[in-house]
Task: inverse folding
């Protein structure tokens, strides 16, 4: 299986620089929140000694004069998703390993691209030059990753069948195994892949079990791990910038209700319900929070989902006052069964909702609103009530 | 994969109510309102109440307002406030 690996080191940082060119020549640390801790997500490569997941305090103690930025994870995901969309135009099977790392199945493309150089050059031209993506082509995911890792930024490297000369010089630290196992390999004097490959598989198996055989195979450049292409699923995203900072659960629920209404306005025509969604918020100072909610059966009504969202919001603390809120519908499905109501008042309500929906469709924007309490206790009068669109 | 992810960013699905409206107010030397211009200029005959709101002091644009409930010479009651960060006067129902 021929695999092409696209590696974009420091992807979150490059996204920030693409968004704001003024950051180009500055030393930056991107931070993320994990519970009560702030951790390093990414950093300028010149800042030696830092690593992802390091507590921010440790990082700052080494470099005082750096610019700290809160990570905008939805933006990075969205950017990488766009990159994967571009790659899918070149090969239908694209695996999203992690942000900044993707694998493409390169088998069967020889009719379009006469050789690997043409394929790699085409992929390189497809991607934005600012990302300086590294590309590797080899007979499996792991050797393709190593080829990309050891190519120049914005360039590519192609490994022919079992290019043992290239692999032999690489340190054993590149193996996808735990730190403990890497340390044991060093303790045995097996500092390079070449040293590991020179051994028969038996001794490694006796020391490391089934993983020993895998290590031996990887050291030889043999990796039969299958490619897991991302599923061709439809996703729907709705998000809103809130008119003011929101701290109350009621106001958050109202905003969620408005977003769900928009989602159902799209889904209802196709008689689809929601099976899985991700609720996310962006707080003041852009702290990101998300929560995934799944349903056993497709939820067909706003109020079913809203009850679940309310319980999540009650039990999960937001990192700060919420400025942006969004819903990402990741799985939809057809309902299992539905019986129309016998009661005329329910049917009247359905007719009214249908009329409102048609009105909104004609004008292209919400036309009917209702007044709802947001923060009735607020000292600021305009925060007490809001107008929420009524399109469900 | 679907080309259009359908991602949208709306600001119009939730709207605040009772947004303050700018109003032309004349002050005396001590900063108290003496007249308010609505359709025509009206003299303030009575300051019925006064209160201050300070909030969101941690933001770049903190809320600092000095509210007055005033009675105008045509008998109209009105709530106005002075934005202490910009100095602009507004009218708002409370």
Result:
């Amino acid at each position: 299986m021929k695999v092409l690996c696209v590696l974009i080191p420091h992807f979150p940082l490059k996204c920030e620089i693409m968004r704001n060119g003024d950051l180009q020549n500055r030393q930056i640390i991107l931070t993320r929140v994990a519970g009560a801790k702030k951790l390093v997500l990414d950093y300028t490569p010149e800042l030696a000694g830092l690593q992802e997941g390091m507590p921010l305090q440790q990082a700052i103690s080494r470099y005082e004069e750096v610019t700290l930025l809160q990570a905008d994870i939805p933006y990075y995901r969205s950017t990488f998703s766009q990159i994967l969309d571009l790659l899918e135009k070149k090969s239908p099977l694209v695996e999203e390993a992690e942000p900044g790392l993707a694998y493409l199945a390169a088998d069967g493309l020889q009719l379009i691209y006469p050789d690997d150089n043409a394929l790699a050059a085409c992929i390189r031209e497809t991607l934005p030059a600012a990302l300086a993506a590294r590309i590797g082509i080899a007979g499996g995911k792991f050797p393709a990753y190593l080829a990309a890792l050891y190519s120049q930024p914005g360039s590519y490297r192609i490994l022919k069948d079992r290019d043992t000369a290239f692999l032999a010089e690489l340190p054993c630290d590149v193996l996808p195994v735990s730190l403990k196992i890497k340390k044991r390999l060093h303790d045995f004097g097996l500092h390079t892949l070449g040293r590991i490959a020179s051994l028969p598989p038996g001794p490694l198996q006796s020391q490391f079990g089934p993983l020993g055989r895998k290590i031996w195979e990887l050291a030889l450049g043999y990796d039969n791990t299958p490619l897991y292409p991302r599923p061709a699923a439809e996703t729907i995203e709705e998000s809103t910038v809130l008119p003011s900072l929101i701290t109350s659960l009621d106001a958050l629920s109202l905003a969620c209700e408005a977003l769900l209404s928009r989602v159902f306005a799209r889904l209802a025509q196709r008689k689809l319900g929601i099976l899985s969604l991700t609720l996310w918020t962006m707080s003041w100072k852009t702290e990101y929070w998300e929560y995934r909610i799944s349903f056993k059966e497709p939820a067909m009504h706003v109020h079913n989902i809203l009850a679940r969202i309310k319980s999540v919001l009650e039990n999960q603390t937001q990192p700060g006052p919420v400025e942006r809120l969004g819903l990402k519908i990741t799985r939809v499905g057809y309902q299992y069964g539905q019986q129309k109501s016998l009661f005329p008042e329910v049917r009247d309500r359905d007719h009214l909702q249908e009329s409102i929906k048609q009105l909104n469709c004609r004008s292209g924007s919400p036309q009917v609103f209702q007044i709802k309490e947001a923060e009735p206790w607020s000292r600021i009068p305009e925060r007490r009530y809001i107008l929420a669109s009524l399109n469900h | 994969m679907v080309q259009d992810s359908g991602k949208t960013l709306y600001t119009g699905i939730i709207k605040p109510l009772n947004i303050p409206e700018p109003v032309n107010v004349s002050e005396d030397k001590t900063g108290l309102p003496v007249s308010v211009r609505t359709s025509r200029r009206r003299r303030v005959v009575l300051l019925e109440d006064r209160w201050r709101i300070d909030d969101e002091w941690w933001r770049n644009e903190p809320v600092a307002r000095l509210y007055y409930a005033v009675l105008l010479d045509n008998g109209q009651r009105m709530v106005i406030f002075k934005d202490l960060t910009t100095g602009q006067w507004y009218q708002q129902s409370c």
